[in-house]
Amino acid sequence: MAYNSLEEKLETRAKAVLDGDSTFSGYSIVVSKGEDDDELALPRCLVICNSGEESIPGLGNFKCELTVRLIESMDDTTLANHQTHVAVMRDLFMDDGIAATLSDETEDVTVFAVISTALEKGVEERAWYSEVSLEVLAAASNIA
Question: Backbone dihedral region of 79: left (phi > 0), alpha (psi from -120 to 50 degrees) or beta?
């Protein structure tokens, strides 16, 4: 199994969820993965999988934290618009079927479950940010 690419696979799948949603993609918000070299202009949505820990040594299943962070400038949008964008983003990742949505045979990634979900929001340097973080149990293989 390709353990070393699990974080990349999860980021790729999460980006595909955002890019594939007609409502979210209509907002013209650039979606970037954690290790992309995209220009990080605002507005932007970052999909980051920073960590993973094998749940049972040798089994190949990892508990990973996947964070989706939306950042928009106060100078370019209203708070109401930002909150609308956040609601769409969070609804996509708080959906009951998100584990199956993130799984993909082509990418060889299986998400067995979402263990927990966390929300955060705030203001940094005249920009609103909101995020949803999922702790997922996943494997870098296709277990169809």
Answer: alpha
